[in-house]
């Protein structure tokens, strides 16, 4: 799952990137207002961690821009501003959560998971679709109670597809979700084909129905 951290304090930003990467989140960083605007215009994230006091502008204006663009990214405000009025304003403007600095990284991680679970997976820790079971906390997959061993990339792809069920996902969008900023530097996205092929093969061999459709020239769709 992909996260944008909008934070200008280097030590805190590095700490969040390090900790959350260790929790298997793909982290991107914006250190000022302009970088943040560029990233939210260009990319989609499962969750955005938004500082309010940024070089060049206010985090509240970033929140306004997200709503103006009708973006569906989850947003957690992370701020040293901790008055009741600040928290109410942030939540009224559309943030999903608000956590005051300083905070424990483990609590931040739990809140991120909670936001993503609520927005993408109907607030469930376990996804059940027919014969397929996905445990989001344990990061395990089973078909009719038989475990299916997936690589980290394959698991990320699977929950990305399920979280965007019945939507067409382009190969470039999938590459960006899995690789973040690096996707722009890749010569091609052939690695996506290999990951999708392996995911489909493992699910099929376990007896799972073919929910993952290839739409030639357009991308992929998890069809239910």
Tell me about this structure.
With 224 residues, the chain is α/β, with parallel strands linked by helices. The chain is 42% helix and 24% strand. The protein is built from eight helices and 14 strands. The longest helix has 16 residues, at 105-120. The two termini are 21 Å apart.
Structure described in brief:
This protein has 224 residues and is of the alpha/beta class.
Mean pLDDT: 91
Strand proportion, as a percent range, falls in 15-25%
Class computed from helices, strands and strand pairing: alpha/beta
Q: What would the principal axes of the Cα set say about the shape? A: globular
Tally of helical segments? 8
- Radius of gyration, CA atoms, in whole angstroms: 18 Å
In N-to-C order, the SSE pattern is EHEHEEEHEHEHEEEEHEHHEE
State the distance separating the first and last CA atoms.
Answer: 21 Å
Strand order of the largest sheet: 2-1-3-6-7
Low-confidence stretches: none
**Count of DSSP E strands?**
14
Largest sheet: 5 strands, parallel
Q: State the share of residues found in helices, binned by percent.
A: 40-55%
């Amino acid at each position: 799952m992909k996260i944008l951290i909008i934070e200008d304090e280097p030590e805190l930003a590095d700490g969040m990137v390090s900790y959350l990467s260790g929790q298997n989140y793909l982290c991107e960083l914006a250190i000022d207002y302009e970088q943040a605007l560029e990233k939210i215009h260009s990319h989609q994230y499962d969750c955005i961690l938004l500082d309010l006091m940024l070089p060049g502008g206010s985090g509240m204006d970033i929140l306004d821009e997200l709503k103006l663009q009708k973006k569906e990214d989850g947003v957690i405000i992370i701020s040293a501003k901790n008055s009741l009025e600040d928290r109410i304003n942030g939540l009224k403007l559309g943030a999903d959560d608000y956590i005051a600095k300083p905070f424990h990284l483990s609590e931040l991680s739990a809140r991120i998971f909670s936001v993503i679970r609520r927005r993408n997976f109907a607030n469930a820790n376990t996804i059940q679709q027919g014969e397929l079971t996905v445990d989001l906390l344990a990061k395990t997959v089973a078909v009719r109670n038989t475990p299916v061993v997936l690589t980290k990339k394959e698991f990320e792809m699977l929950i990305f597809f399920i979280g965007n069920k019945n939507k067409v996902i382009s190969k470039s969008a999938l590459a960006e979700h899995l690789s973040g900023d690096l996707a722009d530097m890749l010569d091609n996205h052939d690695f996506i084909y290999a990951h999708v092929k392996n995911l489909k093969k493992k699910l099929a061999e376990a007896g799972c129905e073919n929910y993952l459709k290839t739409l030639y020239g357009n991308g992929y769709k998890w069809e239910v």
